[in-house]
Amino acid sequence: MLAKERLSMMYKMILANSSVTIEELSQTFDVTPMTVRRDLEKLSDMHTNVVRCHGGAMLATEVNIEENFENKRVLNVDDKARIASKAFSMISDHDTIYLDAGTTILELAKLIAVSNLSLTVVTNDLATSQLLIPSKSEVLLTGGTIQKSTGCLVGSIAEEMISKMRFKVAFMGATAINESFEVLTPSIEKRTMKPAVLRSAAKSYLLVDEDKFGKYSTYVIYSLKDFTGVITTRVFSKTEKNEMEEFGARIIEV
C-alpha cells in the first residue's frame, strides 16, 4: 500500500470513529507505531479537524455559532457541579468576584446563592444575576447588548464597566480549547470582552468540562497559561501534563 493511500484511509477512519489509537492503526495497516506517529503528524498538518493526542488522534469539532443556553444547560451536569464545587472553595467572605456567562458558571452561582457569603458579584449573565437576587451578595450587571442565544451581555458598555473595576478573582467559561491550548470563541464581541476581565482580576480561573477540549472556533481569546488555574474534569495523561507544565498552564483536576 502506498503511503498516500494509507493516509487517506487513516483519515477516513478518524472521520468515521471520531478518534483512533496508534496501536489499532499499526495493526490495521501492518506498519510500526513510529510510522503511524509520522502519518498522524502529516494528517494533522493536512487537515485542521485532525488533532494529535497522546496515543493517537481525534476529530476536532469546530464551533461556529454560540450554542443555545438551554441546550448546554443539560449537558455534563455532574461534571459542571464538581467543577463549581472546587471553584466555590476558592472564594472568601467579602470578596469581589466576576462570574462569566455560561452553564458551568451558573452551577457556581447556585452554590453562592445558598451560602452565607456576603460578596460583591459582577456578572454579564442574566440567568446568574436572577439566581443571586435572594442571596446575601451585592449583584452588579455589566450592562450592554443582550446576546439572545446565550442570555449574556456584551459590547462596549460592558467592556467599559469592566475596565473600571477590579476583581479579587474572576471565574470564566469557554466554548472551545484547541490542541495549542488556545481558548476560542465564535463571538467577536467576546473576543475583546473576556480579556478585559482578566486584566481587571488579581486571580482568574477557567472552568471547563472535558467536552471543551479538542474543539475549534473562529477567534482566539487567550491561552490556558493566562489563567491562575484551569479547573476541569478532563483527565490528562502524564505526557499531556508534562506538556501543560512546560507550556505554563496550571491544571486543577476534579
Kindly describe this structure:
The chain has 254 residues and is α/β, with parallel strands linked by helices. It has two domains: 3-59, Winged helix-like DNA-binding domain superfamily/Winged helix DNA-binding domain (Arc Repressor Mutant, subunit A, Orthogonal Bundle), CATH 1.10.10; 69-253, 3-Layer(aba) Sandwich (Rossmann fold). It is 40% helix and 26% strand. It contains ten helices and 17 strands. The strands form five sheets. It has a seven-stranded parallel sheet with strand order 7-6-5-10-13-16-17, sandwiched between helices. A three-stranded antiparallel sheet has the order 1-3-2. Strand 11 and strand 12 form a beta hairpin. The longest helix is centred in the N-terminal third of the chain and has 15 residues, at 3-17. The N and C termini lie far apart (45 Å).
Q: Would you kindly provide a brief summary of this structure?
A:
The chain is 40% helix and 26% strand.
Can you tag this structure with a few keywords?
DNA-binding transcription factor activity; 10 helices; three-stranded antiparallel sheet; DNA-binding; single chain; DeoR-like_C; 2 domains; elongated; transcription; seven-stranded parallel sheet; Rossmann fold; 17 strands; DNA binding; Arc Repressor Mutant, subunit A
**Main CATH class of the largest domain:** Alpha Beta
Radius of gyration: 20 Å
Order of helices and strands, N to C? HEHHEEEHHEHEHEEEHEEEHEEEEHE
**Number of separate helices:** 10
| Poorly predicted sequence stretches spanning 5 or more consecutive residues | none
- How far is it from the N-terminal to the C-terminal residue, by CA? 45 Å
Q: CATH architecture of the largest domain, please?
A: 3-Layer(aba) Sandwich
Biggest beta-sheet profile? 7 strands, parallel
Average of per-residue pLDDT values: 89
Strand order of the largest sheet: 7-6-5-10-13-16-17
Percentage of β-strand residues:
25-35%
**Structural class designation:** alpha/beta
- The CATH topology of the largest domain, please? Rossmann fold
- Range of helix content: 25-40%
InterPro entries: Carb_Metab_HTH_regulators, DeoR-like_C, DeoR_HTH, NagB/RpiA_transferase-like, Tscrpt_reg_HTH_DeoR_CS, WH-like_DNA-bd_sf, WH_DNA-bd_sf
Keywords: DNA-binding, Transcription, Transcription regulation
GO molecular function, one term: DNA binding
Domain HTH deoR-type: 3-59
